[in-house]
Amino acid sequence: MRQVIECVPNFSEGRNGDTVHALATAVCAAPGVRLVNVSADPDHHRTVLTFLGEPGAVAEAAFRCARVAVERIDLRSHQGVHPRIGAVDVMPFIPLRNVPISECARIAHEVGYRIAHELDVPVYFYEHAALPGRPKDLPTIRRGGFERWAGRPLTGERAPDAGPAFLHPTAGAAIVGARGPLIAFNINLDTDRVEVAQHIASTIRQERERVEQLRGVRALGLFLPSRGIAQVSLNLTQPDQSPLWWVLGYVRSLAAQWDVQVLETELVGVAPASAICEAAARCLQNASLREEHILDLWLDPEWNP
Fold it and tell me: Cα(241)–Cα(237) distance, rounded to whole angstroms?
């Protein structure tokens, strides 16, 4: 049966349309790969690509767009609200069909070593691709960002897993890994008070060990200058455990304590049909709504309800 994996690289560029186009073009030029989403945000100053295909094809497309990022992105003049340490800030590989997570870890190593050796960029491996005895979680590896480590030797705990012992002067470092499905979900508030979003994010981080639906939820409180609003930026790393509708309701209740309402939400990249269907079922008050009710899924010959 056909093997399918997903790659969701996050690049530190969300304003230059030519660079975003060049990144997407590099993916589309790789045979056997389907680019399914491009999400670029000027405040985060970040672009997220989502592409699918067989493992070898996805690995080649991932390296091609990484090469474009290293050539075109200069972090010395980059400022956005999202944390980052590299032009290729994070590049995860996710198993979708007939592929074990160990195969995605192998591909992460293959692509990571190519980035290190061919592009002269230090590489850290994370989550299921993390090397023995090394940090696994993304926030720990990215801590300090580009500015803290630029020009400083990367030694001891900061030593990269591959590549030079200094950040690339313009492209920083790359974090490459393998993980399960994740939903990137932003909740925009109808206020310019960033302290509200920061309080909500801090509460989520404090409560995630106690509240089952918050386990695996990563949260940041940010201010979006171009829109003049505050945002709670979320990564749902265990989407089966953290329903979108529940997380939204939780944030809405915390915001209400500040007399603030939810303005809108944003989905960055793509999400599993099951998560969207569950949210729709809740919104429509239709407990019997299932994925088989979604017509478009039946157009996929490999989909089995």
Answer: 9
In a domain, 100, yes or no: yes
Find the CATH number of the domain harbouring 232. Answer: 3.30.70.670
Q: Give me 246's structure tokens.
A: 């529940």
| Number of domains observed in the structure of the chain | 2
Q: Mean of the per-residue pLDDT values for the chain?
A: 95
Over the stretch 26-68, which tens digit does the pLDDT of each residue have? 999 999 999 999 999 999 999 999 999 999 999 999 999 999 9
Per residue in 277-305, pLDDT tens? Answer: 999 999 999 999 988 888 888 887 676 65
E-only strand ranges, the chain: 4-7, 10-11, 33-41, 46-53, 88-97, 123-127, 174-178, 183-189, 217-224, 229-236, 262-268
Position 58 in a domain: yes
Of the residues 78, 82, 109, 117, only one is catalytic, namely: 82
Is beta strand 262-268 parallel, antiparallel or unpaired with respect to 183-189? antiparallel
Output the pTM of the full model: 0.93
Closest CA to 35 of 24, 19, 46: 24
Query: Does residue 128 share a domain with residue 36?
Result: yes
* Annotation says 82 is catalytic: yes
